[in-house]
Amino acid sequence: MKTTRIYLLTLLAALISSFAQAQDPLFSQFYNNPVYYNPGAVGLTPGLRARFTVRDQWPELPADLRNYTFSMDFAERNIPGSGGLGLMVMSDNAGSGYMKTSTVGLSTAVRVPLQENMVAQVGIMTSFVQKRLNWDNLVFTDQLDPVYGNIYESSFQEPTSGNVVYPDFSTGGVFRFTESSTTFSSIQGTFGLAVHHLFRPNESFLGLTSPLPRKLAITGDMVFEIDGDSDGPYFQREGKKNTFKINPGFIYESQADFKTYMIGLNLLKSAIYTGVWFRNRTSELAKSNDLIFMLGINAPFTSQTRMKINYTYDFVMTEIRTA
Length: 323
Fold this sequence. Notes:
Layout: H1 2-20, H2 34-37, E1 47-57, E2 65-75, E3 82-94, E4 99-115, E5 118-133, E6 144-145, E7 149-150, E8 163-179, E9 186-196, E10 215-226, E11 244-255, E12 258-269, E13 272-280, E14 290-300, E15 306-316
Antiparallel strand pairs: 1-2, 2-3, 3-4, 4-5, 5-8, 6-7, 8-9, 9-10, 10-11, 11-12, 12-13, 13-14, 14-15
Protein backbone atom coordinates (compact mmCIF):
# COMPACT_ATOMS: atom_id res chain seq x y z
CA MET A 1 0.00 0.00 0.00
CA LYS A 2 2.84 2.39 0.87
CA THR A 3 4.55 1.54 -2.44
CA THR A 4 1.35 2.32 -4.31
CA ARG A 5 1.04 5.65 -2.54
CA ILE A 6 4.58 6.63 -3.52
CA TYR A 7 3.84 5.56 -7.11
CA LEU A 8 0.78 7.81 -7.23
CA LEU A 9 2.71 10.75 -5.84
CA THR A 10 5.39 10.23 -8.45
CA LEU A 11 2.74 10.05 -11.15
CA LEU A 12 1.23 13.34 -9.99
CA ALA A 13 4.66 14.96 -10.08
CA ALA A 14 5.14 13.68 -13.62
CA LEU A 15 1.82 15.17 -14.72
CA ILE A 16 2.69 18.55 -13.24
CA SER A 17 6.16 18.35 -14.76
CA SER A 18 4.74 17.72 -18.22
CA PHE A 19 2.54 20.81 -17.97
CA ALA A 20 5.45 22.85 -16.65
CA GLN A 21 6.97 22.30 -20.10
CA ALA A 22 3.99 24.25 -21.45
CA GLN A 23 2.37 22.03 -23.99
CA ASP A 24 -0.94 23.47 -25.13
CA PRO A 25 -4.11 21.35 -24.84
CA LEU A 26 -4.76 18.90 -27.68
CA PHE A 27 -8.27 18.22 -28.97
CA SER A 28 -9.34 15.05 -30.73
CA GLN A 29 -12.14 17.03 -32.38
CA PHE A 30 -9.80 19.71 -33.73
CA TYR A 31 -12.17 20.18 -36.66
CA ASN A 32 -14.80 21.46 -34.21
CA ASN A 33 -12.39 23.96 -32.58
CA PRO A 34 -11.39 26.30 -35.44
CA VAL A 35 -11.36 29.44 -33.25
CA TYR A 36 -8.83 27.79 -30.92
CA TYR A 37 -6.55 26.48 -33.64
CA ASN A 38 -6.54 29.27 -36.22
CA PRO A 39 -7.63 32.92 -35.87
CA GLY A 40 -7.91 33.09 -39.65
CA ALA A 41 -10.80 30.63 -39.54
CA VAL A 42 -13.26 32.90 -37.74
CA GLY A 43 -16.13 33.91 -39.98
CA LEU A 44 -15.05 31.66 -42.84
CA THR A 45 -18.71 30.63 -43.22
CA PRO A 46 -21.46 33.30 -42.89
CA GLY A 47 -23.64 33.38 -39.80
CA LEU A 48 -23.17 32.76 -36.09
CA ARG A 49 -21.71 29.59 -34.58
CA ALA A 50 -21.27 28.72 -30.89
CA ARG A 51 -19.37 25.68 -29.62
CA PHE A 52 -18.84 24.12 -26.20
CA THR A 53 -16.20 21.43 -25.73
CA VAL A 54 -15.46 19.26 -22.70
CA ARG A 55 -12.32 17.13 -22.66
CA ASP A 56 -11.63 14.63 -19.85
CA GLN A 57 -8.23 12.97 -20.25
CA TRP A 58 -7.19 9.90 -18.25
CA PRO A 59 -10.26 9.92 -15.94
CA GLU A 60 -9.19 6.65 -14.25
CA LEU A 61 -6.05 8.26 -12.83
CA PRO A 62 -6.14 10.17 -9.51
CA ALA A 63 -5.21 13.46 -11.21
CA ASP A 64 -7.08 13.54 -14.51
CA LEU A 65 -6.81 16.48 -16.87
CA ARG A 66 -9.98 18.41 -17.72
CA ASN A 67 -10.58 21.18 -20.20
CA TYR A 68 -13.67 23.31 -20.83
CA THR A 69 -13.75 25.53 -23.91
CA PHE A 70 -16.46 27.85 -25.22
CA SER A 71 -16.01 29.62 -28.53
CA MET A 72 -18.13 31.49 -31.02
CA ASP A 73 -17.55 33.32 -34.27
CA PHE A 74 -19.65 35.59 -36.45
CA ALA A 75 -19.43 36.76 -40.06
CA GLU A 76 -21.38 39.49 -41.86
CA ARG A 77 -20.55 39.72 -45.57
CA ASN A 78 -22.14 43.19 -45.93
CA ILE A 79 -19.11 44.72 -44.19
CA PRO A 80 -16.36 45.25 -46.81
CA GLY A 81 -13.29 43.10 -46.19
CA SER A 82 -14.87 41.46 -43.18
CA GLY A 83 -13.83 37.91 -42.44
CA GLY A 84 -15.33 37.65 -38.99
CA LEU A 85 -15.07 38.13 -35.24
CA GLY A 86 -14.41 35.38 -32.72
CA LEU A 87 -14.41 34.81 -28.96
CA MET A 88 -12.80 31.98 -26.99
CA VAL A 89 -13.03 31.27 -23.25
CA MET A 90 -11.04 28.29 -21.95
CA SER A 91 -10.41 26.70 -18.56
CA ASP A 92 -7.72 24.02 -18.43
CA ASN A 93 -7.30 22.05 -15.19
CA ALA A 94 -4.19 19.94 -14.68
CA GLY A 95 -4.05 17.40 -11.87
CA SER A 96 -7.48 17.98 -10.28
CA GLY A 97 -6.81 21.65 -9.68
CA TYR A 98 -3.06 21.57 -9.07
CA MET A 99 -2.56 23.95 -11.98
CA LYS A 100 -5.36 25.89 -13.66
CA THR A 101 -5.07 28.00 -16.79
CA SER A 102 -7.83 30.45 -17.74
CA THR A 103 -7.82 32.11 -21.16
CA VAL A 104 -10.02 34.74 -22.80
CA GLY A 105 -9.25 35.52 -26.43
CA LEU A 106 -10.69 37.81 -29.10
CA SER A 107 -10.09 37.14 -32.81
CA THR A 108 -10.62 39.08 -35.99
CA ALA A 109 -10.03 38.02 -39.59
CA VAL A 110 -9.80 39.76 -42.95
CA ARG A 111 -11.28 38.06 -46.02
CA VAL A 112 -9.34 38.12 -49.32
CA PRO A 113 -11.30 36.82 -52.35
CA LEU A 114 -8.90 35.26 -54.88
CA GLN A 115 -11.21 33.85 -57.55
CA GLU A 116 -14.87 33.01 -57.78
CA ASN A 117 -14.24 29.62 -56.17
CA MET A 118 -11.24 30.52 -53.99
CA VAL A 119 -10.90 32.63 -50.86
CA ALA A 120 -8.27 33.28 -48.20
CA GLN A 121 -8.51 34.74 -44.72
CA VAL A 122 -5.86 36.09 -42.37
CA GLY A 123 -6.56 36.63 -38.70
CA ILE A 124 -5.07 37.48 -35.33
CA MET A 125 -6.07 36.57 -31.77
CA THR A 126 -5.31 38.61 -28.68
CA SER A 127 -5.63 36.63 -25.45
CA PHE A 128 -5.29 37.28 -21.74
CA VAL A 129 -4.05 34.28 -19.77
CA GLN A 130 -4.00 33.56 -16.05
CA LYS A 131 -2.13 30.55 -14.65
CA ARG A 132 -2.75 29.54 -11.04
CA LEU A 133 -0.75 26.97 -9.11
CA ASN A 134 -1.92 25.46 -5.82
CA TRP A 135 1.32 25.08 -3.90
CA ASP A 136 -0.38 23.33 -0.97
CA ASN A 137 -1.22 20.30 -3.14
CA LEU A 138 2.29 19.80 -4.50
CA VAL A 139 4.59 17.09 -3.14
CA PHE A 140 8.36 17.68 -3.22
CA THR A 141 11.09 15.07 -3.07
CA ASP A 142 12.28 16.09 0.43
CA GLN A 143 8.82 15.21 1.79
CA LEU A 144 9.03 11.55 0.76
CA ASP A 145 10.26 8.65 2.79
CA PRO A 146 11.15 5.47 0.81
CA VAL A 147 9.04 3.37 3.21
CA TYR A 148 6.33 5.59 4.73
CA GLY A 149 5.74 7.97 1.83
CA ASN A 150 4.79 11.62 2.36
CA ILE A 151 5.66 12.26 6.04
CA TYR A 152 8.12 15.19 6.08
CA GLU A 153 7.73 18.94 5.74
CA SER A 154 9.33 20.47 2.67
CA SER A 155 12.04 23.10 2.91
CA PHE A 156 10.69 24.76 -0.23
CA GLN A 157 9.57 28.35 0.34
CA GLU A 158 6.61 29.05 -1.89
CA PRO A 159 6.39 32.47 -3.56
CA THR A 160 3.99 35.10 -2.30
CA SER A 161 1.78 34.70 -5.36
CA GLY A 162 0.62 31.61 -7.16
CA ASN A 163 -0.72 33.55 -10.15
CA VAL A 164 0.85 34.52 -13.45
CA VAL A 165 -1.02 36.85 -15.82
CA TYR A 166 0.17 37.78 -19.29
CA PRO A 167 -1.11 38.79 -22.77
CA ASP A 168 -0.65 36.37 -25.64
CA PHE A 169 -0.90 36.72 -29.42
CA SER A 170 -1.53 34.24 -32.23
CA THR A 171 -1.94 34.61 -35.98
CA GLY A 172 -3.02 32.38 -38.82
CA GLY A 173 -4.28 32.07 -42.34
CA VAL A 174 -6.82 29.86 -44.11
CA PHE A 175 -7.26 29.00 -47.79
CA ARG A 176 -10.44 27.42 -49.18
CA PHE A 177 -11.56 26.37 -52.63
CA THR A 178 -14.65 24.66 -54.05
CA GLU A 179 -15.05 22.56 -57.18
CA SER A 180 -17.59 20.18 -58.69
CA SER A 181 -17.33 16.99 -60.72
CA THR A 182 -19.48 14.36 -62.37
CA THR A 183 -19.14 12.11 -59.31
CA PHE A 184 -19.54 14.66 -56.51
CA SER A 185 -21.94 17.57 -56.35
CA SER A 186 -19.26 19.52 -54.49
CA ILE A 187 -15.57 19.18 -53.64
CA GLN A 188 -14.24 21.54 -51.01
CA GLY A 189 -10.75 21.90 -49.62
CA THR A 190 -9.71 23.94 -46.58
CA PHE A 191 -6.11 24.37 -45.47
CA GLY A 192 -4.78 26.47 -42.62
CA LEU A 193 -1.54 27.45 -40.90
CA ALA A 194 -1.29 29.22 -37.54
CA VAL A 195 1.48 30.28 -35.16
CA HIS A 196 0.59 30.62 -31.47
CA HIS A 197 2.45 32.50 -28.69
CA LEU A 198 4.18 34.84 -31.14
CA PHE A 199 6.10 36.81 -28.51
CA ARG A 200 6.73 33.87 -26.15
CA PRO A 201 5.31 35.34 -22.91
CA ASN A 202 7.05 34.59 -19.63
CA GLU A 203 4.99 32.18 -17.48
CA SER A 204 7.39 31.58 -14.57
CA PHE A 205 5.85 31.37 -11.08
CA LEU A 206 9.20 32.05 -9.40
CA GLY A 207 10.13 35.35 -11.02
CA LEU A 208 12.58 33.64 -13.36
CA THR A 209 12.59 33.49 -17.17
CA SER A 210 10.39 30.75 -18.59
CA PRO A 211 9.20 31.75 -22.09
CA LEU A 212 6.24 29.85 -23.48
CA PRO A 213 7.33 27.96 -26.62
CA ARG A 214 5.68 28.90 -29.89
CA LYS A 215 3.27 26.39 -31.41
CA LEU A 216 2.79 25.67 -35.09
CA ALA A 217 -0.54 24.19 -36.22
CA ILE A 218 -1.15 23.02 -39.79
CA THR A 219 -4.62 21.74 -40.72
CA GLY A 220 -6.23 20.47 -43.86
CA ASP A 221 -9.37 18.68 -44.96
CA MET A 222 -11.29 17.76 -48.08
CA VAL A 223 -15.07 17.41 -48.27
CA PHE A 224 -16.55 15.25 -51.02
CA GLU A 225 -20.31 15.71 -51.08
CA ILE A 226 -23.07 13.82 -52.86
CA ASP A 227 -26.57 15.29 -53.22
CA GLY A 228 -26.21 18.17 -50.78
CA ASP A 229 -24.91 21.69 -50.40
CA SER A 230 -21.20 22.26 -49.85
CA ASP A 231 -19.49 22.24 -46.49
CA GLY A 232 -17.97 19.81 -44.02
CA PRO A 233 -17.32 19.16 -40.34
CA TYR A 234 -14.32 21.55 -40.23
CA PHE A 235 -16.29 24.70 -41.11
CA GLN A 236 -19.99 23.93 -41.16
CA ARG A 237 -23.26 25.30 -42.51
CA GLU A 238 -26.83 24.18 -42.83
CA GLY A 239 -27.03 20.72 -44.45
CA LYS A 240 -29.75 18.74 -46.14
CA LYS A 241 -31.22 15.54 -44.75
CA ASN A 242 -30.09 13.54 -47.77
CA THR A 243 -26.53 14.83 -47.60
CA PHE A 244 -23.70 12.30 -47.75
CA LYS A 245 -20.23 13.73 -47.05
CA ILE A 246 -16.81 12.10 -47.02
CA ASN A 247 -14.38 14.23 -45.04
CA PRO A 248 -10.71 13.16 -44.75
CA GLY A 249 -8.41 15.50 -42.88
CA PHE A 250 -5.24 15.99 -40.89
CA ILE A 251 -3.61 18.22 -38.30
CA TYR A 252 0.07 18.66 -37.41
CA GLU A 253 1.11 20.39 -34.18
CA SER A 254 4.63 21.25 -33.13
CA GLN A 255 5.59 22.93 -29.85
CA ALA A 256 9.10 22.69 -28.41
CA ASP A 257 9.87 18.95 -28.26
CA PHE A 258 6.21 17.92 -28.69
CA LYS A 259 5.24 16.99 -32.23
CA THR A 260 1.84 15.41 -32.86
CA TYR A 261 -0.19 14.66 -35.94
CA MET A 262 -3.64 13.22 -36.59
CA ILE A 263 -5.06 11.78 -39.77
CA GLY A 264 -8.52 10.36 -40.24
CA LEU A 265 -11.91 10.41 -41.85
CA ASN A 266 -15.39 11.66 -40.92
CA LEU A 267 -18.62 10.61 -42.62
CA LEU A 268 -21.98 12.37 -42.55
CA LYS A 269 -25.11 10.52 -43.66
CA SER A 270 -28.39 12.35 -43.13
CA ALA A 271 -28.13 13.44 -39.47
CA ILE A 272 -25.47 10.96 -38.28
CA TYR A 273 -21.75 11.67 -37.96
CA THR A 274 -19.13 8.92 -37.65
CA GLY A 275 -15.36 9.13 -37.75
CA VAL A 276 -12.10 7.27 -37.14
CA TRP A 277 -8.78 9.02 -36.51
CA PHE A 278 -5.20 8.12 -35.63
CA ARG A 279 -2.97 10.26 -33.42
CA ASN A 280 0.77 9.77 -33.42
CA ARG A 281 3.88 11.32 -31.94
CA THR A 282 6.38 9.55 -34.20
CA SER A 283 6.94 9.41 -37.96
CA GLU A 284 6.01 5.72 -38.09
CA LEU A 285 2.38 5.18 -39.10
CA ALA A 286 2.41 1.66 -37.67
CA LYS A 287 3.05 3.01 -34.16
CA SER A 288 -0.06 5.06 -33.49
CA ASN A 289 -0.48 6.37 -29.95
CA ASP A 290 -4.28 6.74 -30.04
CA LEU A 291 -7.12 5.30 -32.06
CA ILE A 292 -9.99 7.81 -31.95
CA PHE A 293 -13.66 7.09 -32.59
CA MET A 294 -16.32 9.78 -33.12
CA LEU A 295 -20.10 9.54 -33.18
CA GLY A 296 -22.55 12.42 -33.39
CA ILE A 297 -25.85 13.81 -34.58
CA ASN A 298 -26.78 16.86 -36.63
CA ALA A 299 -30.20 18.08 -35.48
CA PRO A 300 -31.78 20.88 -37.58
CA PHE A 301 -34.27 23.13 -35.76
CA THR A 302 -35.18 25.48 -38.60
CA SER A 303 -33.93 26.08 -42.14
CA GLN A 304 -31.11 28.24 -40.71
CA THR A 305 -30.57 26.83 -37.21
CA ARG A 306 -29.21 23.50 -36.02
CA MET A 307 -27.42 21.80 -33.16
CA LYS A 308 -24.66 19.20 -33.31
CA ILE A 309 -23.65 16.83 -30.52
CA ASN A 310 -20.46 14.84 -31.04
CA TYR A 311 -18.79 12.36 -28.68
CA THR A 312 -15.20 11.23 -29.13
CA TYR A 313 -13.44 8.36 -27.38
CA ASP A 314 -9.66 8.00 -27.51
CA PHE A 315 -8.42 4.43 -27.22
CA VAL A 316 -4.86 4.71 -25.89
CA MET A 317 -2.49 2.22 -27.52
CA THR A 318 0.63 2.95 -25.45
CA GLU A 319 1.78 1.57 -22.08
CA ILE A 320 -0.19 4.13 -20.08
CA ARG A 321 -3.40 2.31 -21.07
CA THR A 322 -2.65 -0.29 -18.33
CA ALA A 323 -2.97 2.49 -15.71
